[in-house]
Amino acid sequence: MGKQIWKPGNMLYPLPAVMVSTADKNGSANILTVAWTGTVCTNPAMVYISVRPERYSYHMIQESGEFVINLTTGEQVRATDICGVRSGKDIDKWKECGFTRGRASSLQYAPIIAESPVNIECKVKSVQELGSHHMFLAEVTAVQVDEKYMDETGKFELNKTGLLVYSHGEYLGLGEKLGTFGYSVRKKSVRAIGRSKGGSGSLGKRSGAKTGKAGR
Ligand SMILES: Cc1cc2nc3c(=O)[nH]c(=O)nc-3n(C[C@H](O)[C@H](O)[C@H](O)COP(=O)(O)O)c2cc1C
């Protein structure tokens, strides 16, 4: 069996399916679902969203220069789809999805979706007219996270929020944990070596291997 060669197209999956909330300068706010999104810089924290100019939301993002990327969960899959197939020029998606407008801490116009576990507040830096989509390159000005996902040590358990993934036309949940950043080069603890050799492993002490965070 060989490979098929396809014409150029979008096959970079999986992607997050996020709900982007935005508003014009009169305070009229809307939500649209976006999959063409990503992180482009760690410091300053920068992201992009690519939006077709014919979307109702487009003029709001252009006018206010503000939007919020609201991460979505499996529980919000229907709302995520609705915000991606219905237009704000026809319906009030806040009402339709039962969402609450919350205050962004760093923006003047765009609201957050209060029900989302993570709200990434963004200010547009530049717009690149690529073709079918225009890319809004934006700086992250604040991030809000829902305290209900904090564990007892204060760690935000993002992967326990039930994040939603979009892949090749389908919505999926996250699968099981397969590793952690840098785990392949991290030294095994004495306890783990002991266990793998059938020993008691009672001398367990974690190695000082780095978490690898700096690489991101
Ligand atoms: C899963 C999914 C992903 C989408 N991704 C994008 C996207 O990245 N860019 C875009 O312009 N539209 C995207 N859309 C389509 C818009 O969300 C859709 O046209 C929406 O109705 C626009 O809303 P509005 O007219 O209220 O702005 C996506 C739709 C779905 C369902």
TrEMBL record:
Residues 11-158 form the Flavin reductase like domain. Keywords: Flavoprotein. Its cofactor is FMN. Residues 194-216 are annotated as: Disordered. InterPro entries: Flavin_Rdtase-like_dom (IPR002563), Flavoredoxin (IPR052174), Split_barrel_FMN-bd (IPR012349). PANTHER family: FLAVOREDOXIN (PTHR43567:SF1), FLAVOREDOXIN-RELATED-RELATED (PTHR43567). Belongs to the flavoredoxin family. This is Flavin reductase family protein. It comes from Candidatus Mediterraneibacter pullicola.
